[in-house]
Fold:
Amino acid sequence: MIERDARGLVAAITVLLSFVALVALAAAVATRPEPEVRAPSVVSIDAGIERVDAGAAEVAPTPRVEVPYALDDLPRDGAQLAEGCPEVPLVDHAGDPVPWRPALRVHPALVPAVRALERAIVETAILTYHRAPIRILSASSHRCRTMRGNPTRISEHALGNAVDLRGIVLDEGEEITIRDHWSATGEDAIHVRFWHALVRRMIDEQSFRGIVGPPRADHLDHLHFDHGRSRFTDVELP
Ligand SMILES: [Zn+2]
Structure:
């Protein structure tokens, strides 16, 4: 009876051990094929890269939609100047609170952008010099002419759609100009910071579509701002 029980126990243990062995084997089979486990993860990495690329394409910046501007539809061919200046409304703009010298003569549609430039000049001067300028020096505003170096196109100046800034007067007798202080060194390096901060702000704000300045040979002494039909920036900060 005892012997039979012992045999039964051995048989039960054998069955149990066999079962454990089978489970272990099954587990080993389930986890063994590492290559198969790794392979899908590699594929998913590749797929991930593709998704990133596809995602980047999907979120690429959409083309700028320009807000229509009053002068966009006016012709720009240079030949029209043979008939005289384009007939456009013009206003005198003295500048407020800091006056322009000479005062500007521009198309009324350009006035908001000119005001944005005035604000940028005053605020950048306060940040740089801790005071506003007493005057802003212009080099040109309305002027009936073709583009520099391209007689087939009229200048935006001919439409009153551009202003040229040549400097500021910080205190009586102290002129800070692009000609003298665009890339000044030593004690005058503070003026370089002023001009560069101003240009960076105007580029960021986009209140004008066109900004031209040094080192262009014909713009070494002024910054040109216009609201022509296309956006461009042709100025280099040294
Ligand atoms: Zn100009």
Confidence is low (pLDDT under 50) at residues 20-57.
